[in-house]
Amino acid sequence: MGKFVKVLLVVNLCLWIYFWIAFAQASYTFHPDPLGHPAGTGYTFWGHSVAVVESGFVYPFFKVMFYGQFPSFALATLVVRMFSPHQLINGFFAGISGGGWLLLAVMMLSFLQWYLIGWLGQKLWRRWFKHQAGGLNQAAAPSPIPPRATSSRP
Questions:
Q1: The whole model's pTM is what?
Q2: Rounded distance, CA 88 to CA 40, Å?
Q3: pLDDT tens-digit profile of 42-100?
Q4: Which helix (H) or strand (E) holds 23?
Q5: Nearest CA among 50, 53, 35, 41 for reference residue 86
Q6: How far apart are CA 47 and CA 97, in angstroms?
């Protein structure tokens, strides 16, 4: 694993640490059926919720996560909707709402996403610079055979 890939994965980890700390600070106690919404709406983890009655996009940490992890978010949402269209809005499993499970899936996929982006970026970077190094600006390599000494005989 190259340096660039490692940097991207560490930055991704820092993003998720920021997300979960901000989520914990912004969350509120989940009350069943608030304002007529079905149980499991929003992103709920063991009684702490965000985006039950409001959009998740009112929170800066959610915007950063959504736009930074968009490919992972889109893939996770697509898979969930293919297999269970109602999974995102109804019910709890192990104290986590459907939206919460979606966030956990996005988090796992995001590491794969950034690994692949880093790997592809490194591959393209090496290919581009290898091509550039083979150009006219490359210094000639020293010859393994020393030049013949010329004698100065009269």
A1: 0.70
A2: 8
A3: 788 887 888 777 778 889 999 999 999 999 999 988 888 887 766 555 667 787 888 88
A4: helix 3-26
A5: 41
A6: 10
Question: What is the signed CA dihedral for 37, 95, 97, 46, rounded to 10 degrees?
Answer: 80
Rounded CA separation 91/31 (Å): 13
Give 101-128 pLDDT, tens digit per residue. Answer: 889 999 999 999 999 999 998 888 888 8
The beta strands (E) that lie in the chain are given as: 28-29, 43-45, 48-50, 92-93, 96-97
Radius of gyration over every alpha carbon of the chain, rounded to an integer in angstroms? 27
Sheet with 43-45, edge to edge strand ranges: 28-29, 48-50, 43-45, 96-97, 92-93
Given a contact cutoff of 8 angstroms between Cβ atoms, the answer to whether 117 and 8 are in contact is yes
Q: Coil, strand or helix: which one is 67?
A: helix
pLDDT of amino acid 21 = 93
As a whole number of angstroms, the distance between CA 30 and CA 40 comes to: 9
Alpha carbons 106 and 75: distance in angstroms, whole number: 8
Place of tokens 């993003």: 15
